[in-house]
Amino acid sequence: MQLAQEDRVTALSFRTDDVPMMATANSEGDVALWDLDNKRLMHVLQNAHDGVISSVDFMVGQPLLITSSADNSIKEWLFDGNDGIPRLLRSRTGHFAPPQMIRYHGDDGRHLLSAGRDQTLRFFSVFRDAQNTELSQGSLERESRVRHARMSALRFPAVTQFASNTAMSRDWDDVVSCHQGSRDAHSWSVERKSLGKYTLESSDSSIVRAVAISACGNFGFLGLASGVIEMANMQSGLSRRTFVGHTKAVTGVHTDACNLRVYSTSLDGTLRIWDFATGNQLHCINMPSTPSHLIVYRESSLLACACDDACIRVIDAESTRIVRTFSGHRNRITDLAFSNDGRWIVSSSLDCTIRTWDLPTGYMVDWFRVESVPVSVAFSPMGDFLATAHMDSVGIFLWANRTQFADITLRQINPHSDGSTDGSVAGAALVAMPTTAGLVDENEETVEDVEMDAVYMAPEQLTDNMVTLSSQPKSKWQTLMNLATIKKRNMPEKPAQVPELAPFFLPTTVSVEHQFDFGTSDAANIPTDPTSSKLISVSSESQLARILFNAHTTRVYAPVFEYLKTLNPSAIDVEIRSLPVDDQLKALKAFVCATTCQLKSKRDFELAQAYLHVFIAVFTDIIKANARELEPLLAELRNELKAQWDTVDNLIRYSACMIEFMRTK
Predict the structure, then answer these.
(1) Alpha-carbon span 392 to 372, nearest angstrom
(2) Which helix (H) or strand (E) holds 567?
(3) Between the CA of residue 366 and those of 278, 353, 415, 451, 463, what are the distances in Å?
């Protein structure tokens, strides 16, 4: 018997449930079904897959056919009709070309949207693989059979950028996408898992380069190659407003959380801020280098731009100033993502590294290297995962955020060095890509083991110019300052009454009858020495006084505060009150010098204030009586105290003004 099929045969299988049938597959993605009794072709499943079919198998004794292909899919076909033609029962598919952009969809961190080179837009569930699906572009299978064309030729061009918002998902489309070389943007519905109702066309027939959706989900934005930005209504698909000002192609568009501002970047090297309601330009910021990516953290109005000079620049939209510049990548930056709390920026680059930048400190706090170039990153809204897509892989990789379940101390890393703090490690650690098992071989040395070998201890003070508080609990110095009030409040209303003294065992006399001896005890007859003291020893100097005298001699006052830190509030109060007062006021002078030295070091600011409060309250009269002798030391203390307090007071006032400004904005 000889049967012929178009194109090269790549797999075949025989049916085993008493039906004489054979299934063959070819390199074009078609499956042919043959009737072995009549030696004829029964049916051809055209475009069953989008790539070469590598395997076809009939389930033993069942009318089920399993096919798998190079298009990263596996399908199960059921023969339940009288005509012998199968229907698709279930399938599991994924990208068969590397994804180019990934983003989390929704605020729960459970779903991902991914656009790949395979011209598809896919929906993935982080927890349930059965929910993974492709957003439908219409009846492509039927159209491909009618036109005798491959499905890949009927799909939209590859998605270059997309944006999503779940605010109005139940009412109308919630995703908008732009495509490679296309003048149109398309809307999608994740709720229906299909193409949306509208095609958003550019008004000047230029290519759509960037898209965005407003925070309310009502408006979509198109950034055109001509430099124009168009706003369209997501419910009706009609154009509402245009923003004209850029002279070259738009590379990024975003809006704020209240629909007051629109942010955009362009190849003309500018970042522009527009009025949402009127379309007028409010600010134009000339960037040092051409921005290629733009992201926004809406809760704080911070913008981050990835520029062509491999630098990340963070702009405060309120002050329109560049507040942070992160440099260190050695090749073009491919994507950016804010963390869920807005504290970090995660960036990926063609240098195969993924880096984490800390916004408050301006330092790089983490980085690692992977074998495949990362092209897109997305941080979970819940902060538990980082999703990455890579140039040579069709999968989406999830990295767990260890700070969610372990105590991790972040350290400063020099981004321009070899990646180590001491020069012992050559470059960033090469990390193996996550797998479906999610486990690392026990024989392999993990990154965690390497990091745990050297325990990093955080310094007490980051810089010498920073006023630093102590690590002591707040209640300690507050109790010390209010100790007299606490003692007065806890004082009993009536003094405690001493119970009558009575021995537990009464002595008895030596006699036949049982009688108690009420005579004077022998202890009372012991003669006493009037010159001897009831105390074994009395020291004239306290421990604090001895430490002060020694520190005043060596001019090293750090041990004074280290000793006071070990005491409780009551003991500190007793130690200060026990300082000896002699004619030279040696102990008082030493304490004033120790406090001045501590203020100059800018450490333990609140403890120094509390100790000084108790000291002045106890020795006010003595200080007044000897003001002339103590004046030089007190003047130095006053000047240092005023300088340090002015610094703290300015920071407090600045923060209060910023909070009031944001509250009333």
Answers:
(1) 6
(2) none
(3) 42, 10, 10, 12, 21
User: Are 303 and 271 contacting, i.e. CB atoms less than 8 angstroms apart?
Assistant: yes
Scan for tokens 């953290």, then name that residue: 297
**Could you tell me how far CA 133 lies from the centroid of its own chain?**
28
Q: What are 469-485's pLDDT values in tens digits?
A: 888 888 887 888 888 88
Q: Average pLDDT, whole number, for the chain?
A: 85
CA gap 273, 418 in Å, rounded:
38
Report d(CA 281, CA 650) in Å as an integer: 34
CA–CA dist 396, 452 (Å, integer): 28
Instruction: Report which of 100, 2, 14, 103 is spatially closest to residue 57, judged by C-alpha positions.
Output: 14
- Enter the pTM of the model: 0.66
Number of neighbouring beta carbons within 10 Å of residue 436? 7
CB 208 within 8 A of CB 222: yes
3-class DSSP assignment, residue 426: coil
- Give bridge partners of residue 136 from the DSSP assignment: 194
Contact residues for 540 (Cβ-Cβ < 8 A; gap 6+): 580
User: Could you give the 3-state DSSP secondary structure of residue 249?
Assistant: coil
Task: State the amino acid at position 328 in one-letter form.
Answer: G
**Token pair in block for residue 637:** 């203390």
Contacts (Cβ under 8 Å, ≥6 apart) of 324: 312, 313, 314, 357, 359, 362
375/366 Cα distance (integer angstroms): 18
CA distances to 264, 275, 284 from 228, rounded to whole Å, are 10, 15, 15
Phi, psi of 645 (to 5 degrees): -70, -35
CA atoms of 327 and 325, how far apart (whole Å): 6
Q: Kindly state the helix (H) or strand (E) to which residue 631 belongs, with its residue range.
A: helix 627-664
Interatomic CA distance for residues 100 and 375, integer angstroms: 6
pLDDT higher than 80, residue 530? no
Phi-psi region of 391 (alpha: psi -120 to 50; beta: other; left: phi over 0): alpha
Tell me how far apart the alpha carbons of residues 47 and 53 are, in angstroms, rounded to a whole number.
10
Give the pLDDT confidence of 266-299 residue by residue, as tens digits: 999 999 999 999 999 999 999 999 999 999 999 9
pLDDT above 50 for 366: yes
- C-alpha distances (whole Å) from 616 to each of 84, 481, 486, 576, 621 are 100, 11, 19, 10, 9
Question: Would you give the DSSP letter of residue 402?
Answer: G
Report the 10 Å Cβ neighbour count for 71: 23
- Cβ partners under 8 Å of residue 556, min gap 6: none
What is the average pLDDT across 134-148? 79
Alpha helices in 514-618 (DSSP H): 543-554, 558-565, 569-577, 586-601, 605-618
Task: Take residue 28 and report the two structure tokens written for it.
Answer: 């074009």
Rounded CA separation 93/73 (Å): 4
Q: Is the pLDDT of residue 45 over 50?
A: yes
Rounded Cα distance, 235 and 218, in Å:
7
Contacts 24+ apart (CB under 8 A), 75-79: 75/48, 75/49, 77/45, 79/19
- The span from the CA of 609 to the CA of 56, in Å, is 80
Number of H helices, E strands in the chain: 12, 35
Query: What is the DSSP code string of 58-86?
Result: EPTTSSEEEEEETTTEEEEEE--STT---
Two structure tokens written together for 628? 């002339």
Pick from 10, 87, 99: which is nearest to 43 by CA? Answer: 87
